[in-house]
Structures are given as C-alpha cells and as structure tokens.
Write a structure and sequence with these properties.
- This protein has 257 residues and is an alpha/beta fold.
- It has two domains: 175 residues, SGNH hydrolase (Rossmann fold, 3-Layer(aba) Sandwich); 43 residues, no CATH class.
- It has seven helices and seven strands.
- The protein has a five-stranded parallel β-sheet, with helices on both faces. The chain has a two-stranded antiparallel sheet with strand order 6-7.
C-alpha cells in the first residue's frame, strides 16, 4: 500500500521561495546589465557583420545590428540617436554608410552628418567605417573619386575627437564578390577582424587612468631635516660627525647610529 504525502506551503515556506526567486531574477538582470553593448548601424555593407563578431568577442558583449539597405547617412544617424540613448562609455556604436551619398555626388553631406552626430553624442564610443572602394567601376570613375574625397573629409573631421575612431575599410579585391561592389564572406571576415582589433585596443586604453591621483610626501620619523621640508635651497646639516647634503628632491635620509 502506497502512501502519498502533500507538502503544505506555510507562509514561512512561501516567503522563502519568493526570496529565492527574487535573488535569481536580480542576479540575471545584473548580468545582463553588465554586458558591453555593441550596435552596428548602416547600409547593406554591414550585412552579416554581427554574426562575424558575435563568436570571437565572447559572452561579455551584446551585439546587435540594424540594416538599412539603400539609406543615406542622414537616415542612419537619425536612427542611431534613438538606438544609443542609453549607452555608456563602455559601449560602442559602429556606423557604416555613405556609399549611397557618394553615388549621388554628395560627399560633403555625409561627413557633415557624421560630424554633427559625433558632436551630439559624447556618452559612448563611436566607430565609423570608411566607404569601401567599388571594384565594379574604374578607379578613375567619378564615384570612386567621390569616395576618396568623402574618406579624406571624414578623417579631417574626426581626427581630434577622443571618443571617435575611423576604421579604414582597406579590403583587397579578393574580399569582394564577383561583381565587385559588396564584400564576400572572406571580406566580411577581414573587416570583422579590423573591428575586433580596434575594440580590443579601445578596451585597453580605457583601463589606463589619464588622471593619476597625486600622493602627498610624508615625513619619516628618521628624517633629520627641519620639519621634513626638503624643498628650497640646498643646505648642509651635521649629525654626530657625519655630513650630508639636503637634496632639492623629496627624499628621506636614513643612517645608523
């Protein structure tokens, strides 16, 4: 004969269960909030880049992307302002665009949009990918010349901005598809490697404290100088037949008696 027992939930047991569930929820939310965010925004050139970055970057990064094929930089930067409103200095937004602006002979409009965007966003890191050359056209074509002019102006506008980094998209011809306009899988892997290198360098630079804390000079109990003041003109002090010269630098002198 089998006997079944039913555990009755007393208020004490229920309270213990609720506290356990709350702790698990808080730990999960804390882990999600601690992730470094990376958002890719751009035209068709960023298709597949998020997948190339996800595995190598590891679990400490949360990577998302928004693809806007055929969009100009004005539309991309407008979307970016709302996407990164809650970003911090540990997060990064990657902007890739301008190809459609260069095709319309608007090489001045694109850098101006990016300049205004970077000036209005000082709460996070910004990475801008330059426009890749088009191999389906001659290097002397007006479109490629506009691309070169765009990239030159982009570097000029961003060179003195601390939180902005321009990544040159120097992918060789074998990194493009057969028609020569977009990157192949190999080219996307090359571009993802460039981005990862810059993100790694950015993380190392952020760990260096640019404002060191000055330490005050403490007088040692064996310091024979008056009041421990080692600044001022050089003086000579005598102690039990031994002489030494006070240094203009903050040093303590020790001797045995």
């Amino acid at each position: 004969m089998e006997t079944s027992y039913t555990l009755k939930r007393t208020p004490k047991i229920q309270r213990s269960i609720n506290e356990t569930l709350e702790k698990k929820t808080v730990n999960r939310v804390t882990r999600i909030k601690s992730l470094k965010k990376i958002t890719l925004l751009g035209d068709s050139h960023i298709r597949g880049l998020a997948a190339e970055l996800s595995n190598p970057m590891g679990r400490e990064y949360s990577i998302t992307s928004t693809l806007m094929p055929g969009a100009g930089l004005q539309s991309i930067t407008k979307l970016a302002k709302s996407e990164i409103a809650t970003f911090t200095r540990s997060d990064t937004v990657i902007v890739c665009g301008g190809s459609n602006d260069a095709c319309k002979n608007e090489s001045q409009t694109g850098p101006t949009c990016l300049n205004n965007f970077s000036n209005s966003r000082t709460n996070t890191n910004i990475m801008i990918i330059s426009i890749p050359q088009r191999h389906d056209l001659s290097s002397e074509s007006c479109v490629n010349q506009e691309i070169l002019a765009f990239n030159r102006k982009l570097h000029k506008f961003m060179k003195n901005k601390e939180l902005v980094k321009v990544v040159d998209c120097n992918i060789p011809r074998e990194g493009y598809t057969r028609h020569g306009q977009h990157h192949s899988y190999k080219g996307k892997a090359m571009l993802a490697l460039q981005i990862m290198q810059e993100l790694t360098k950015q993380t190392k630079d952020s760990t260096i404290n640019s404002n060191p804390i000055p330490m005050t000079w403490t007088k040692s109990f064996l310091d024979p100088t008056p009041k421990g003041d080692s600044t001022g003109p050089t003086k000579r002090y005598l102690k039990k037949g031994r002489s030494y010269q006070q240094s203009p630098f903050p040093v303590s002198v020790y001797w045995t008696i």
